[in-house]
Design brief:
The complex is a heterodimer.
Chain A lengths: L5 H10 L2 E8 L2 H14 L6 H18 L3 E4 L4 E12 L3 E11 L3 H12 L3 H11 L14 H9 L4 E6 L4 E11 L4
Antiparallel strand pairs in A: 1-3, 2-3, 3-4, 4-6, 5-6
Helix pairs in contact in A: 2-3, 3-6, 5-6
Chain B lengths: L3 E3 L7 E5 L4 E8 L4 H18 L4 E11 L1 H19 L3 E8 L4 H11 L5 E6 L1
Parallel strand pairs in B: 3-4, 4-5, 5-6
Antiparallel strand pairs in B: 1-2, 2-3
Helix pairs in contact in B: 1-2
The chains are: A alpha+beta, B alpha/beta.
């Protein structure tokens, strides 16, 4: 870590209104602790339940699907590694998550997100109730509903970016934006 | 039949299925690490209970605070079981409770129960 500059890192976070972040193996315990923290921190915010819900979906995605895994002694199993940031400005809240994905899954993830981003709120509701009836894909621990839920809760498009790391993996970045409600 | 009692935790709902009173209630937080695994025995208990109680009126109460998307799939499975019990002649009373002003749980109740032929009500507490 010879060229790491903490002050620069701090300034950069500050400039981008990052109020909280975590990088590492997202175990269930870590997820619970961060969840409780943001519930306290944003307790006055009207959309707190929605923000919390989006955080849980993002964190559980990393936990279950990140292509980068780390052995957790405490849980005696492998957990996904990733990064989650929260930013707050006067007008909005953002939750940004990042983790590695296998290049094989790149196009199916992008396809799902493009499809969701093309739907309005009413269509998203219909799509959710259609997808909940679909049997989960083999390696999916959930029902593949997380992305739809994030778009519905934030009432916004899901911004995403996929950067190729090497022949095997890419880095998936998801940004969920909540517009603050006027008092 | 033995009751099914599960104490709730930060991420798991409590379950109070009282067999002889036919009063079944589930509530609290639901975002376990593996929702399918958590809900499996609950669904199995309910299936046995329904098959043994074709005459009794059953009261099923949901009193959720938050549930994630994988739990929503499991909740729907429970509702499906109750609905098919009702359709084959069983008596079911369904209550969906939400904390006052909690629009999220209120709306998800409306969405999940919409279209059911069971007698249900969505109420605040």
């Amino acid at each position: 870590m010879s060229d790491f500059n903490l002050y620069q890192y701090y300034n950069n976070s500050k400039k981008n209104n990052i109020i909280l972040y975590f990088k590492g193996a997202v175990s269930q315990e870590i997820l619970v602790e961060i969840g409780l923290m943001i519930r306290k921190k944003f307790s006055v915010e009207k959309q707190i339940k929605k923000i919390f819900g989006v955080f849980i979906e993002l964190a559980q995605n990393i936990m279950h699907y990140s292509a980068e895994i780390e052995y957790s002694h405490r849980d005696d199993k492998n957990v996904g590694v990733g990064i989650i940031l929260f930013s707050e400005t006067k007008s909005n809240f953002q939750i940004i998550s990042g983790n590695q994905i296998s290049n094989e899954n790149k196009s199916s993830i992008a396809g799902k997100l493009d499809k969701i981003n093309s739907l309005n709120l009413e269509e998203l509701k219909e799509f959710y109730h259609k997808q909940i009836r679909v049997e989960p894909e083999d390696e999916s621990k959930g029902a593949g509903l997380g992305f739809i839920d994030m778009a519905r809760k934030s009432r916004n498009k899901i911004k995403y970016n996929i950067t190729e790391i090497d022949e095997e993996n890419s880095f998936l970045e998801l940004t969920i934006t909540f517009i603050k409600e006027k008092e | 039949m033995k009751d099914l009692i599960i104490e709730g935790s930060k991420t798991k709902p409590y379950v109070k299925f009282i067999s002889d009173k036919a009063r079944l209630e589930i509530g609290g937080e639901s975002y376990p690490e593996n929702a399918m695994e958590f809900y499996k025995p609950i669904g199995q208990w309910l299936a046995t209970f329904l098959s043994e109680n074709t005459e009794k009126e059953i009261t099923f109460t949901f009193k959720m605070i938050y549930f994630n998307t994988s739990s929503s799939k499991a909740i729907l499975d429970l509702l499906d079981q109750l609905e098919s019990h009702h359709k084959s002649g069983g008596r079911v009373k369904l209550l969906w409770l939400f904390e006052e002003d909690d629009e999220d749980i209120e709306e998800s109740g409306e969405e999940f129960l919409d279209g059911l032929s069971i007698n249900y009500s969505i109420e605040s507490y």
